[in-house]
Amino acid sequence: MSTRNSKLDPLDLFDIRSELSEEECMVKDSVARFVDEQAIPLMREAFEQHRFPNELIPQVAELGLLGSSIEGYDCAGMNSVCYGLICQELERGDSGLRSFVSVQSSLVMFPIYAYGSDEQKNRWLPAMARGEAIGCFGLTESHGGSDPGNMKTQAKRDGRDWILNGSKMWITNGTVADAAIIWAMTEEGVKGFIVEKDMPGFTAQEIENKFSLRASNTAALFFDNVRIPNENVLPGISSLKGPLSCLTQARYGITWGVIGAAQACLDEVLRYTANRVLFGRPVSHTQTIQIRLADMSRRITTAQLLSLRLGRIKDKGELNPTQVSLAKWNNCRAAIDIARDARDMLGGSGISAEYVPIRHMLNLESVITYEGTETIHQLAVGRELTGVNAYG
Ligand code: TGC
Ligand code: FAD
After folding, report:
1. Dihedral sign of CA atoms 152, 98, 259, 21 in order
2. Ligand 2 nearest atom to the CA of residue 103, by list position
3. 366 lines ligand 2 (CB under 6 A)
């Protein structure tokens, strides 16, 4: 039996770091430090207590992680690779933490920035960047989230106002949001409404007893004749392209985020199998365990290369949503398979919250489902290749 000391970083076998600019490395390192020192010590308990750790919001804002890609409005104006690295490091801690930042940045601040009026941008973006105002994004409805074109929530004009009726399901940050971006069908097409938390007729109810993303707030939202002034309608969009373009931003971040979850699992299992002595030798010295570890490394490396390439394309302004679909599908599948395999390689210890794989594994069940299920992304790629829409 021979052993050797590797010169490669086991969590970055292809030295992705060397492809990053100085600024990108700095962002990655500062978020990593925050996650190691402030977030990881809290996440396990937050998961067990079924609560999002609100106490982290001021530090997340202080680091410039909210709306990090937006120029102006007190936002950091970083590039897409920085946003990806932020997601990766946060999700190394917990998917719930990355979800919070994804929703605030990509699903709430992005549509206000891309489609909002000057008044809406000035009112909400700086407050959201500081973490003083929280947002949520309501697209999914209980009868079928994969097909948002079939939404039942509707808004009708009433003089200068609109009257909103309907409901939304599975909404991250739903009960803590000051402003909800709600997508509703109107006679003019799908429009985005900024629904404020104290508007009469708007209620939010937390979804309890989740086994996944327990350190995240998820809610059902109800709209009963909510009167919304026209100033709260996003003026720049009147079609499904509005919410779907937000999803492209968030899905891009998820492709990076899940790499962090997978790295956390590989890191844990490398340590564990090196110390676990079975049949007279560390279990990491067996062929089958090494093949499984190598396979994790292969999948992580592939995911890293996809996301980095995606980020560079995005920064050139050349991103196609199908490319994001392929990466969301590939990277979520890789991460959930890694988490499940890591859980198994820890044996009985793998079911304990003392080790990270089971928490990541459970979280990733949500991540592979939200922002488009695996099937939806496979069909998006199929449509691109064949020109035929196989959804309906
Ligand atoms: P389709 O005819 O394909 O498209 C309608 C219009 O939208 C455009 N478009 C996109 N634009 C930008 N990005 C994309 N990804 C886009 N996909 C489509 C398209 O070009 C078209 O534009 P136009 O100008 O011709 O009108 O629409 P469809 O009804 O056939 O639906 C296609 C499908 C199935 C891909 C879409 O409905 C879909 O993506 N379904 C999945 C829904 C989903 O992902 N929901 C996520 C909800 S939010 C969430 O989960 C947040 S989790 C947050 C967290 O905690 O992190
Ligand atoms: P369905 O659409 O009912 O799908 C059920 C099954 O059918 C899936 O396996 C799907 O892949 C499959 N399927 C669908 N279409 C086809 C087809 N054409 N052919 C074959 N199979 C198909 N939504 C928001 O709007 N905002 C949020 O903040 C948000 N946060 C979320 C947080 C969590 C924790 C979770 C779990 C979900 C969240 N969602 C949010 C909702 C999420 O986007 C939806 O759950 C997702 O889009 C799937 O919709 P659905 O749950 O209704 O499943």
Report:
1. positive
2. 28
3. yes
Atom of ligand 1 nearest to the CA of 372: 44
Structure tokens at 162: 């609109």
The pLDDT tens digits of the residues spanning 156-175 come to 999 999 999 999 999 999 99
Q: How many A from CA of 286 to the centre of ligand 2?
A: 40
Give the residue-averaged pLDDT of 147-156: 98
Which residue of 244, 247, 365 sits with most ligand 1 atoms within 8 Å of its CB, as the best mutation to test the pocket?
244
**Length of the chain, please?**
392
DSSP reduced 3-state for 286: coil
Taking only the tens place, the pLDDT of each residue in 329-342 is 999 999 999 999 99
Q: Mapping DSSP to helix (H, G, I), strand (E, B) and coil, where does residue 131 land?
A: coil
Phi/psi at 89 (nearest 5 deg)? Answer: -70, -40
The domains of the chain, with CATH numbers, are: 16-129 (1.10.540.10), 135-232 (2.40.110.10), 241-386 (1.20.140.10)
